[in-house]
Amino acid sequence: MKARGRRVWIDPRVAQTPDAEALRTQRGPLRFRELAVRARRVAGYLHARGVRPGGVVAALLPGGTAFAEWLHGIDRCGATLLPLNLRLATGELAFQLRDAGAGWLVHDAPFAERARRAARDLDVCLVPADAPAETDAVEPPFVRGDAPLALLYTSGTTGRAKGVELGSESFFHGALASALHMGALPTDRWLACLPLYHVGGLAILLRCCLYGIPAVLHERFDPADLSRAVDREGVTLVSLVPTMLAHWLDERDGRPVPPSLRAVLLGGAAASEGLLERAHRLGVPVLPTYGLTEAASQVATRIPGDSMRPLGGRLRPLPGTELRIAREDGRAAAPEEAGEIRVRGPTLMRGYRRLPGATEAALAGGWLRTGDIGVLDAEGLLQVLDRRDDLIVSGGENVYPAEVEAVLADHPGVGEVAVGAREDPEYGERPVAWIVAATRTPSPEELRGFCRERLAGYKVPVAFEFVAELPRSATGKLLRRALNARPA
Known about the structure:
The protein is α/β, with parallel strands linked by helices. It folds into two domains: about 10-385, ANL, N-terminal domain (Rossmann fold); about 390-485, GMP Synthetase, Chain A, domain 3, CATH 3.30.300.30. The protein has 14 helices and 25 strands. It has helices at about 10-15, 30-50, 65-75, 90-100, 110-120, 170-180, 200-210, 225-230, 240-250, 275-280, 355-360, 400-410, 445-450, 480-485; strands spanning about 20-25, 30, 55-60, 80-85, 105, 125-130, 150-155, 160-165, 190, 215, 235-240, 265, 285-290, 295-300, 315, 320-325, 340-345, 350, 370-375, 380-385, 390-395, 395-400, 415-425, 430-435, 465. Helix 4 crosses helix 5 (about 110-120), helix 6 packs across helix 7 (about 200-210) and helix 8 crosses helix 9 (about 240-250). It is globular. The termini are far apart.
């Protein structure tokens, strides 16, 4: 797709409200003018080390102020940020660095050894996250450019992770649309306990910069810390996944939330009606949300104040975003008829990195083919019925069976393998592997260790079931749903 230009996020905000609070962590606040100074220092440091517009700078950083500093510094260089999932195995990190063509890898001190191992055999310059503070690097001349602002990897149903190229314009239009949908107040404070390397966390940082409000950063989710921020620190907006919401409701133990809490955006996985009813009874203003990395996060969100059932449905597309439900033949479905959710609007990705064929297929006719199943009612409101057919959503993390199957298939004791989902009261779903053994039957402990060396922890199956054969259709297609339906 044709690029649509590049904006710098921090400068307009500093020009308007330099002393407004930009970030708040346990170490205290950081104002926009202070954040801008640090971002310029980062930009100068990177420029001195060869970063130019269009370069890809990877970041292996936790969710504190350093992430925001590097985000805005990379933006000032006209380069592209590749935020790396801290939970990925070394091989997965190396694949993303190689596939993205990253030339630099910023890392926090605790991740120095992982960064070194991931960058081994690659032409990647390792950069300690605190290095710019020790230099007086001159800020580079500003070049607008049109490179993507961010490159985020999301696994596909083929098992190969694809790099989603998101331009500055995608995040900008998403921020404007979210403000129009939910309102934006100068007194807002948006708490981010989602990982900043996910599209949802990254979007919060950029939205808060555009709105001129503080992003309250929690490096990890803690229900008691969330309650403290809502009850005592004036947090008005929170983004959670269903598992987080359940734990938070447990921690509050019936205590009402203050009226200052305007919205809890709930995404990442489908929430049960039981969980939503529980939150509703306690007066928690939950807004179920449907979003995608390919659409810079938020696509459709429940209307604030809507109490009609089902509480998990009635999601309204954000302003500027169009939804349609497509039948298998591509024609538009009737109201209340299930089909594939397709999305069109200014927040869509530019494409998949170095995959023109996949990009063309995903964005045929300007509509993003999500692969997710849903219905639109007569008002044009969305209810998501199912995520991608084989997708496992475990604690808000996406697990694609084909990716796990590809790893297990490399084990000499595995003849055939299928990975499916098993319901879990805490995580929603957990991956389970069904295996037809080869010449010998490996132990579950052996397979678990084999996976942990090659996959992030949340992708490792919680159980390994040995079967004589896998269920298949008459055409040989694996009947994954038949495996998923088997009792634990």
